[in-house]
Task: inverse folding
């Protein structure tokens, strides 16, 4: 601010208050922020409050300050750095290149470092009281401070305004306007050197700053204060009221001696009357604070250091030393120690005890963390500066005096202080003795030794006192033991190692073993032992042999009581570390002997205790035990590793009774099992695990001899032998020993150093097993599972050693019970669990089979043994396949099929109900995962059938709780119903679901798996698979090839030869098959809704039909039912299927089941357009010509049947067009008109005229409501099974109705009802049967699960009203009384024309004229005339009749109307009439040219394989 505020103001500058900003950094210390912070600047409302504005801002006293301006502010950035200054300099080098200032703490830090040099005087200019000086207003006061020496010279550059500011020579305070009582509170630092400090003083000059008189500063007074007092002390810390001396403006201060003789503070005026002092009413206050490592303000310290000047004050100074601040003592540590020992040398008798107490006080002062760093200063003093050669006598004398009086209660506190300081006391004693020996040539050596001995005897007596509770004596003992180990190194400077060891042994040996003292004293004793082991004294072999017994004794006591385990572990670790370092020395063997005899037993018990003790997760105790466990384990391994044959022999000889040896062996075997646990060491500690295993196997080899010698024959002990075998098994099974998992280089290194320890242990198992003799029976079947687990390890030598043990077990079991069912049962049970864990391989299966077969060649029970081995081998084969399948991610047919194979193996061959139930639930889970809910329900039915409605209690099993049998069965029923409902198995739900919801019709495919590369359960077998919704042959085939990417697709349907079966490859043969409905009664019964009929056409299917190329020639002996199908027969089937498809679509359209009319449109267009372009006219040209009729007289009935089907198709087309016209949308009207026109053209091109027979047929059909619907179905299967299939219900899980992948369906014939020989079988397997084992007879494919109804076997149709044999089925009236009709079931061939095309199938004429058809229901040996049993009119069939069918309803020229037949008349009603029923024509079977012709029985005609594209 300028001196004046007017225009004529001069340029003299004053410091004036402007603003203050405050920032709290408390919150910033918790984080690490580098963002700039803006500090708001405030100013005082009243200028006189400036000295405390920062406190007002902090306290938020808003009435006393306000903002200086809207934009006033100060931006700062703060960053918290961690570490000492040197570390920060290294880590943040660039920061110190920008002139960073370092601010030291105002005063000493909490820890004073030796060598730290400081001499800073802090002055705070507080306030002043001044007079007006003859003016009407108060003055504008400014204070100027200078540092002046005695000669009047101003000391330059020793005033610091703040950190980072340059040093100044003068200081000028800020000026308060018109204030005679100004308050400044400005702090300054004066870093004055010590040499100039003693003669310097501070001078304060006071001036009035005028704003009117040319801005001058007028001096009117001054004050001063010396920095050093006359008695040598520095200016005391605190506030000083200084006298303001009046002076004139022109006064000269060159001669400072003129005013230094004046008093400087008000305290000096009392009793003095100085003429130079003009007034005493004005005062000036300052506050001083000295931070110095060289100067002191303490008079007692100065008196002690100057003890020679005042000898009479020595006693008082020594007694006051304890009251002096510690920082003052450490500042003058060396001088203080020299003073003390100087007093001791000159007058030890008078001041010896006081000097000793002062020395103890100083030593204990250095134990404080604040002064801990001064210990090296004292050590340096003792080594380099201490000169008290005679001090040791007095120190020993006084120390012994205190030890002897430790039991005195009134001196307990002081005695404990003495014991705390014993380390440095002994250092002074030893150094003093060394100085004395150097000075005198070693005189009085014996005297010194005696003094030490007497001192330690007093100590031993003091330690031997037993105490009760935490008394003062026990506290004193704890204090001594805590610091006693530090004395060892000092004693070694003057005494021999053995002498010191004996002294220490005697001292530690005086400790009472069993006391009632508190646990803290026991812990201190053990810590003393630990420090002894860690000391330099213990490193010498000579001292170890002396100290080791007493150390082990105390360790044994603590381990026995399980106390202070962490300390015990640390001590043991240090002991074994020294043994390892000195393992080449002979003394180590003796030390091992001592340790084995003293600690091995308790060490084993300790490991067992800490590993079996339950601890809460995450607790601190648990963490401690984990650490301790590692320590103790390492110690045990180290001990066993150092033991030799002699040690083991001595150990075993030490046991006096067999029971003691037994307990020891059980104990060490248990500990070894604990050490083998995976969690004992971190995962990556492979080397440590190998070392531990090497130690274990070495020890086991030694101990196995003791086992054989002491626990066989009459002394046999099952428990110890069982423990031994159990240990050996888990040893071999360790993951860290499975060398196959290692890299080649790592495996090589392990084998070079340790060998394959699994083989070594396996050989030992075999040897010990052979030694058991007749006692082997005790371990059968208990050891079968463990030994089997060992043999599954992929190590050839180990397998060769261990597998023969199973032969031995079979032999001994045969001797004991006459069979080996226990061995078999245990092998089977364990194989399942072990192989499911990934153990075992194909090599093991072969090796197991070959070794055991060779072993039993000469046994009397060879036959039963071969059977067992074969059973186990087959189980292994299935388990390996199952495991391989389960490795795949998604659920597919292989997983399901493999599970079923294993499930049935357990049921049929092994009769293992529990395993059977387990795999039922595994299969159930697979189906649920694949969302095959129907199959899941059928699977669960298998378990349900094993249960009864009883109150028998069932144990907890799998996910089932403990409950009664009926409760579990009830739960299963509810679950099964729920799954049926989820799988759209509508019969399991409500009737409206059955009738309303649309269900898709599935596709079925025959799949053959040929070649040895397929899994066992698929190899050389054929199956029927159900496809996905809308899945056609090409998509299914591609899916199967994706599932078996290495398979080769066979492009023909021929039967594979033997080379394909035995090939080392995979061949897939896939083609579509047609389902043959079983429930013909349901399909032909009137009044049953079409949805139900359509369900039974594709569900509950046990037989299928397929076509295969057939060549004329010699009859196939392997398949006597191969027949030739003529083109005429094929044409009949094509027309039958197409007519049926038309009926279904028309019916769906009539009942509004069809969402749109497109499928009907496409089907009509395909038939009519094909007829226009040839179509059915081609049949007429081929079969209705005279030449064909004459050459094939046996086909007369077939030609008549074909003619009637053509008539029927024309009627259906005409009716379909009528229905189509009703429902066709407007935009498709042109197409409908085109279809009508083409229909006329079709009739014209055929030239067929109506005949009486066909007309009567049409009239008959018009009234029949029987139209079979094949609406799309999504059903997956029926929840009900017939009684004759009940025996195979356990295999119903193999009958998937809808699955994302192929399901596999074999069907062995029912033994109680042999299959009809007229049927070709699917590998003796049909839906839903388990996979049969025989890989042969692949040419036999489709066959019934159970025998056909008797009507079929008798050559009679169950649909004929006059010849129905089955009593449980009602007679069905013939639909068509026409003499040319008969009831036919009409099997459809697997024509590719019907695979979704809407053409009439003319292209089927180009098919191979010879095909192999299966499922012809014929009865061998039936007379040809038995067909007369059918309900057929006697009117003969006119074979040569060429009367064309009534294709047209108008004349071709459309000139005159012709009345429509009744069945083709378009009604006027809103709904079209029902479709005419399909005529059932009699077609004799003349397909075989053999003389023994069989009668063709009626057969139900199945639905088309693909009926719509909806």
Result:
């Amino acid at each position: 601010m300028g001196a004046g505020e007017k225009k004529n103001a001069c340029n003299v500058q004053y410091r004036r208050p402007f603003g203050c900003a405050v920032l709290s950094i408390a919150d910033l210390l918790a984080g690490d922020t580098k963002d700039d912070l803006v500090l708001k600047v405030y100013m005082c409302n009243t200028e006189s409050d400036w000295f405390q504005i920062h406190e007002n801002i902090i306290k938020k006293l808003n009435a006393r300050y306000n903002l200086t301006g809207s934009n006033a502010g100060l931006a700062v950035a703060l960053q918290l750095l961690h570490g000492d200054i040197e570390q920060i300099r290294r880590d943040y080098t660039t920061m110190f290149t920008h002139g960073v200032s370092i601010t030291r703490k105002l005063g000493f830090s909490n820890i004073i470092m030796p060598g730290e040099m400081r001499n800073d005087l802090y002055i705070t200019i507080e306030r002043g009281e001044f007079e007006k000086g003859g003016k009407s207003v108060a003055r504008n006061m400014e204070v100027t401070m200078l540092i002046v020496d005695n000669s009047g010279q101003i000391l330059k550059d020793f005033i610091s305004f703040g950190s980072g500011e340059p040093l100044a020579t003068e200081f000028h305070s800020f000026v308060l306007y018109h204030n005679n009582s100004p308050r400044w509170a400005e702090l300054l630092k004066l870093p004055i050197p010590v040499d100039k400090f003693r003669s310097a003083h501070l001078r304060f000059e006071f001036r009035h700053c005028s704003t009117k008189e040319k801005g001058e500063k007028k001096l009117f007074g001054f004050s001063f204060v010396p920095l050093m007092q006359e008695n040598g002390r520095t200016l005391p810390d605190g506030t000083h009221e200084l006298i303001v001396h009046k002076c004139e403006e022109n006064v000269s201060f060159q001669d400072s001696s003129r005013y230094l003789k004046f008093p400087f503070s008000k305290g000096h005026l009392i009793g003095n009357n100085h003429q130079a002092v003009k007034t005493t009413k004005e005062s000036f206050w300052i506050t001083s604070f000295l931070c110095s490592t060289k100067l002191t303000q303490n008079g007692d310290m100065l008196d002690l250091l100057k003890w020679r000047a005042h000898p009479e004050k020595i006693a008082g100074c020594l007694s006051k030393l304890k009251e002096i601040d510690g920082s003052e003592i450490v500042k003058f540590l060396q001088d203080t120690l020299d003073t003390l020992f100087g007093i001791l040398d000159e007058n030890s008798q008078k001041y010896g005890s006081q000097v000793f107490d002062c020395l103890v006080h100083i030593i204990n002062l250095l134990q404080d963390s604040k002064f801990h760093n001064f210990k090296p200063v004292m050590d340096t003093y003792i080594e380099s500066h201490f000169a008290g050669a005679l001090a040791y006598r007095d120190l020993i004398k006084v120390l012994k005096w205190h030890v002897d009086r430790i039991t005195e209660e009134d001196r307990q506190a002081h005695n404990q202080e003495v014991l705390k300081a014993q380390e440095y006391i002994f250092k002074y004693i030893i150094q003093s003795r060394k100085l004395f020996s150097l000075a005198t040539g070693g005189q009085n050596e014996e005297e010194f030794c005696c003094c030490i001995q007497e001192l330690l005897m007093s100590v031993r007596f003091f330690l031997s006192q037993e105490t009760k509770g935490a008394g003062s004596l026990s506290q004193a003992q704890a204090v001594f033991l805590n610091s006693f180990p530090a004395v060892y190194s000092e004693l070694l400077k003057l005494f021999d190692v053995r002498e010191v060891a004996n002294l220490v042994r005697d001292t530690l040996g005086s400790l009472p073993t069993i006391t009632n003292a508190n646990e803290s004293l026991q812990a201190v004793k053990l810590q003393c032992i630990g420090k002894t082991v860690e000391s330099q004294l213990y490193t010498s072999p000579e001292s170890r042999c002396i100290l080791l017994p007493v150390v082990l004794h105390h360790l044994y006591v603590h381990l026995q009581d399980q106390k202070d385990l962490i300390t015990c572990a640390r001590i043991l670790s240090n002991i074994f570390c020294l043994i390892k370092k000195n393992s080449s020395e002979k003394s180590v063997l003796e030390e091992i002997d001592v340790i084995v005899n003293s600690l091995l037993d308790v060490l084993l018990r300790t490991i067992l205790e800490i590993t079996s003790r339950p601890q809460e997760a995450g607790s601190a105790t648990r963490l401690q035990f984990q650490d301790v466990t590692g320590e103790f384990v390492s110690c045990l391994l180290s001990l066993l590793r150092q033991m030799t044959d002699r040690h083991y022999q001595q150990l075993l000889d030490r046991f006096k009774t067999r029971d003691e040896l037994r307990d020891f062996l059980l104990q060490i075997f248990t500990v070894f099992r604990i050490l083998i646990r995976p969690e004992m060491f971190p995962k990556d500690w492979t080397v440590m695990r190998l070392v531990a295993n090497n130690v274990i196997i070495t020890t086991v080899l030694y101990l196995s001899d003791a086992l054989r010698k002491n626990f066989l024959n009459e002394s046999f002990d099952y428990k110890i032998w069982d423990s031994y075998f159990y240990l050996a098994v888990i040893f071999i099974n360790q993951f860290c020993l499975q060398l196959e998992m290692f890299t080649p280089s790592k495996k090589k290194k392990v084998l070079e150093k340790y060998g394959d320890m699994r083989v070594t242990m396996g050989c030992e198992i075999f040897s010990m097993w052979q030694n058991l003799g007749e006692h082997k029976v005790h371990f059968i079947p208990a050891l079968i599972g463990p030994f089997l687990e060992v043999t599954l390890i992929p190590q050839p030598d180990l397998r060769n050693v261990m597998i023969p043990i199973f032969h031995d077990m079979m032999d001994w079991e045969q001797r004991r019970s006459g069979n080996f069912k226990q061995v078999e049962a245990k092998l089977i049970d364990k194989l399942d669990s072990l192989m499911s864990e990934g153990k075992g391989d194909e090599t093991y299966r072969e090796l197991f089979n070959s070794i055991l077969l060779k072993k039993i060649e000469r046994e009397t029970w060879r036959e039963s043994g071969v059977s067992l081995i074969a059973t186990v081998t087959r189980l292994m084969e299935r388990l390996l396949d199952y495991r391989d399948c389960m490795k795949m991610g998604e659920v597919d047919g292989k997983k399901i099929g493999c599970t079923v194979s294993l499930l049935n193996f357990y049921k049929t061959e092994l009769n293992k109900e529990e395993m059977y139930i387990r795999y039922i639930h595994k299969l159930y889970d697979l189906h649920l995962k694949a969302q095959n809910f129907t199959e899941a329900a059928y699977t669960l039915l298998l378990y349900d059938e094993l249960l009864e409605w009883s109150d028998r209690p069932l144990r907890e099993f799998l996910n089932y709780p403990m409950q009664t049998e009926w409760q579990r069965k009830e739960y299963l029923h509810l679950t099964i119903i729920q799954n049926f409902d989820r799988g759209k198995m509508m019969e399991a739900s409500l009737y409206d679901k059955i009738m309303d919801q649309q269900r898709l019709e599935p596709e079925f495919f025959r799949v053959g798996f040929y070649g040895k590369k397929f899994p066992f359960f698929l190899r050389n077998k054929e199956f029927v698979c159900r496809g996905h919704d809308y899945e056609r042959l090409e998509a299914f085939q591609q899916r199967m090839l994706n599932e078996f990417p290495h398979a080769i697709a066979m492009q023909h349907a021929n039967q594979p030869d033997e080379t394909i079966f035995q090939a080392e490859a995979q061949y897939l043969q896939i083609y579509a098959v047609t389902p043959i409905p079983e429930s013909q009664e349901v399909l032909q019964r009137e009044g049953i809704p079409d949805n139900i009929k359509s369900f039974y056409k594709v569900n509950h299917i046990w037989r299928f039909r397929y076509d295969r190329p057939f060549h004329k020639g010699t009859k196939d002996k392997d398949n006597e039912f191969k027949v030739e199908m003529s083109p005429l027969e094929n044409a009949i089937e094509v027309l039958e299927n197409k007519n049926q498809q038309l009926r279904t679509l028309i019916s769906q359209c009539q009942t509004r089941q069809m969402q749109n009319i497109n499928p009907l449109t496409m089907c009509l267009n395909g038939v009519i357009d094909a007829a226009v372009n040839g179509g059915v006219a081609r049949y007429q040209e081929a079969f209705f010509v005279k030449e064909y009729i004459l050459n094939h007289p046996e086909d007369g009935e077939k030609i008549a049947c074909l003619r009637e089907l053509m008539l029927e198709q024309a009627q259906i087309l005409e009716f379909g067009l009528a229905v189509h016209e009703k429902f066709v949308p407007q935009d498709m009207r042109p197409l409908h008109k085109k279809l009508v026109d083409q229909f006329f053209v079709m009739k014209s091109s055929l030239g067929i005229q109506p005949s009486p027979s066909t007309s009567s047929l049409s009239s008959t059909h018009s009234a029949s409501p029987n139209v079979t619907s094949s609406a799309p179905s999504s059903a997956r299967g029926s929840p009900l099974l017939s009684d004759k299939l009940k025996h195979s219900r356990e295999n119903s899980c193999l009958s998937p109705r809808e699955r994302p992948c192929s399901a596999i369906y074999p069907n062995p014939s029912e033994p109680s009802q042999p299959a009809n020989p007229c049927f070709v079988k699917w590998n003796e397997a049909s839906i839903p049967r388990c996979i049969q084992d025989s890989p042969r007879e692949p040419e036999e494919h489709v066959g019934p699960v159970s025998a056909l109804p008797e009507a079929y076997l008798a050559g009679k149709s169950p649909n004929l009203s006059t010849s129905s044999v089955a009593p449980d089925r009602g007679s069905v009236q013939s639909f068509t009384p026409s003499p040319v009709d008969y009831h036919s079931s009409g099997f459809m061939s697997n024509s590719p024309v019907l695979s979704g095309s809407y053409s009439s199938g003319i292209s089927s004429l180009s098919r191979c004229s010879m095909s192999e058809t299966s499922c012809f229901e014929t009865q061998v040996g039936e007379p040809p005339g038995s067909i007369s049993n059918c309900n057929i009119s006697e009117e003969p069939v006119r074979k040569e009749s060429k009367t064309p069918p009534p294709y047209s309803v108008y004349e071709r020229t459309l000139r005159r109307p012709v009345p429509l037949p009744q069945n083709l008349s378009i009604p006027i009603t809103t709904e079209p009439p029902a479709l005419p029923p399909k005529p059932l024509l009699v077609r004799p079977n003349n397909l075989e040219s053999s003389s023994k012709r069989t009668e063709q029985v009626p057969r139900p005609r199945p639905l088309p394989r693909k009926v719509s594209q909806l």
Remarks:
- The two ends are 99 Å apart (CA to CA).
